[in-house]
Amino acid sequence: MKSEISTRHFTQLLSATRRGARLARLMTVHQLEEWGWPPSCAVSESATLVVAGLAANAVAHGHVKGRGFRVSLAVEASDTLRIEVADPRGDRRPVSCHTASAIDETGRGLLLVDALTARWGSEPWPPSGKVVGAEIALPCPVIAASASTAAQDGGAAPQTT
Fold first, then answer.
1. What whole-number distance in Å separates Cα of residue 87 and Cα of residue 89?
2. Record: fold of 9-92+107-152
3. Which of 44, 83, 115, 150 sits at 20 to 30 Å (Cα–Cα) from 94?
């Protein structure tokens, strides 16, 4: 009997611009749909908001002229979606979440990341950058599924087989 192992990993290097941050969000929606989570499901919506917040921070606080940022998505241990955004500014690590006032126009990205993820944090990315990673708990263990399987199940999250 042959055991089925599914590796789901996506990485993309993007320009450190507002357009790059937007593309990171759109690519996340597309990739998760390919893996079986439609854009309207909780996993896709949460992951999209997390990527949007981390990518915006990479552009605003991690930008180095001529260098981009990297977005990675991976399904780990069949019950966790790992999101990583790496940028070249290791000297600017994210600070713990603070509360934003009602009149603040910015500063809510990490509050959203904290609210939507099981855990998040940052670590050095040699030689001079950092990686900000976040984990989203998946609603059911994932062994193998595809977008066509999800479509047959009426768009539900991927099921174990």
1. 6
2. Heat Shock Protein 90 (3.30.565)
3. 44
